[in-house]
Structures are given as C-alpha cells and as structure tokens.
Amino acid sequence: MTQSQLLSPGKTERLRTCIATRKTLPDFQLLRTVLSTSEPNVVVPDLERKFPGRGAWITPTLEALDTAEQRKAFGRAFKVSSLLDTRLVRQYLLDTTTKQEGLQH
Predict the structure, then answer these.
(1) Residue limits of the YlxR domain (predicted)?
(2) What is the 8-class DSSP label of residue 8?
C-alpha cells in the first residue's frame, strides 16, 4: 500500500517545498522541522508534525541538510537572523541512515 492510499477518504495530498532543493513534494516525503520551544535557536525534527510554530520542510537526507545550512535556508524559513543549531536534525538523519543501511545488509 502506498502512502497516498493511506490518506483518509476525501483528504488530498498536501504539497510542501523543500527549503534545500526547492522541490515541491507531498508532505509525507519531507521532514518537518521547527524551532525548539525550550531552547532558543535550536532546530528540531517534528516527527509527528504536531509541534507548535512555523515549520520548515526538508528532504530527509544529509545532503539536503548541508545545502540548507550553506544557503542559510533555515533562517529564512523561520524568519530569524541569528545562527541556528541543526545538530538534532543532523543526528536524526544520521540515525535514520544508519538504520536503513543496517536493514539492507
């Protein structure tokens, strides 16, 4: 069963734009990130897509994260001018990549 078949009847696919690649994709193919409510300037992955605040969507790869950091895309997406800490997003992507590689072997 594909992800689009899992959508409830009557629901449409929500399209979002990746802040790194600028590609428009269905939201289930992207990772939503938000600014932490407890730590200023820390970007966190929003896996359940329920955290409050403005979200920024990114293709869930380390390459996309590197591109977004180089282009300062997180700052633009969150409308902040200060430096943002993306360590938690990077750790999540590293963990996910490691798990996927383990399943392939």
Answers:
(1) 16-81
(2) P
Specify the amino acid at residue 60.
Answer: P
Please give the structure tokens belonging to residue 104.
């392939």
Report the Cα–Cα distance between both ends of the chain, in Å, rounded: 24
What tokens does 53 get? 């605040």
Instruction: Please report the domains of the chain, with CATH numbers, ordered by start residue.
Output: 14-104 (3.30.1230.10)
**Residues β-bridged to residue 24:** 17
Cα–Cα distances in Å, from 92 out to 2, 7, 11?
Answer: 24, 25, 29
| pLDDT tens per residue across span 68-78 | 999 999 999 99
Give the other-Cβ count within 10 Å of 86's Cβ.
21
Give the pLDDT band of residue 5 (cuts 50, 70, 90).
very low
C-beta of residue 54 within 8 angstroms of C-beta of residue 35: yes
